[in-house]
Every structure is written in C-alpha cells, then in structure tokens.
C-alpha cells in the first residue's frame, strides 16, 4: 500500500458478527463522530450531515423498533431469518444513525436554482463520504461495523423516539462493536476492467 490511509481503507470491512463490547471508551467514539462530521466535505460547504450515536438501551431500542416494523410486513413463515438478522444487530455495542437535514438542501435549492436538481444527489454523496470516514476510523480502533438501510420504514418511529427534527431524513444505520469473528475472504474484479488511465 502507498500510505497509511490506504492501509486503513483495506482494513475497513463489513463485519456482522459483533459483540456488546468496545475496544475504546465511548468518549473516543464521540470524538471520531465529531471530527468526521466537522471535516467531511459537502457541496457548497452545506454541512447538511447529521449523526446520532446510540449506546446501551438506546441502541437496543433502535433494533427493537426495527424488528417490530419488519414483523408487521414480513410473512410469518419467513420472519425467522429476519429475527436472526435483527438479533445480530442488537448484539452490537452501539449504532450510528446518519441523516441529512433537508431544510439545508431546500435552502440551497432556492438560493441556487440552476443546481436545484443536483443538491439531493450531492447530499447523498457527502453522506456516503461521512459514513466511510467514520467506518474507517472505527476500524482503526479495532471496531467492526456494517451499514444498514431500514429507512424509510423506521423513519417516523426513530424521529419520535429521540425527538429529532422533522427535516432530518434518515439515510443509514451503522451497528458497531468488537468483532467476534474476522470478515470472510473478498474477491476482487480485475482492476484493468475498472480503471482506465491515459497518459
């Protein structure tokens, strides 16, 4: 690898087997999220990203909410695998919720009408960068994580449970914790098929 950052990029993997343990204090996780939210770029410096960190009973409550929402729509004879997945997420140490503040996006759309159709896309791109920065930083601290998308199914319940603004749109959920097993092998398609370089 060319540098330390790329080494960390290789270290970041999707890990589902997580425990209710952490390799670092909660304050360190808060610091990672604060710094990532502060320094991750956004279009027009909109700073529209929002994050909610759930520890302990709050983390458990999120996956309880998600389980109940899914139970109402997944056929009973197929719910066992869904329950197993939910139990796996709940077994983690905590969860980070990623949001975009749509009030900020709408303000930019009104201010710069030429780009109004692009702002939602740029917002998603910025959110993706934030997710990646935090995920990689957690991996550097020995924490595993995965990225989940049960939005918009759980949006209303999440906003109500934690009294969040109506303008915050839920983008993703990231359960994290100490890994209990390493990630599996990953296959890579030939880079020559994915990258073109002209000199």
UniProtKB/TrEMBL annotation:
| Any one GO molecular function term | oxidoreductase activity
GO BP terms in the entry: cellular response to oxidative stress
Tell me which positions the record assigns to the signal sequence. none
Taking the first listed entry, what is the main subcellular location of this protein, grouped into a coarse class? cytoplasm
Query: Which intervals hold domain Nitroreductase?
Result: 10-178
Q: Name one Pfam family in it.
A: Nitroreductase
A single Gene Ontology CC annotation of this entry is: cytoplasm
Alphabetically sorted, this entry's keywords are: Cytoplasm, Oxidoreductase
Say which domain of life the source belongs to: Bacteria
Q: Where in the cell is it found?
A: Cytoplasm
Protein name as annotated: Nitroreductase
The scientific name of the source species is Paenibacillus elgii
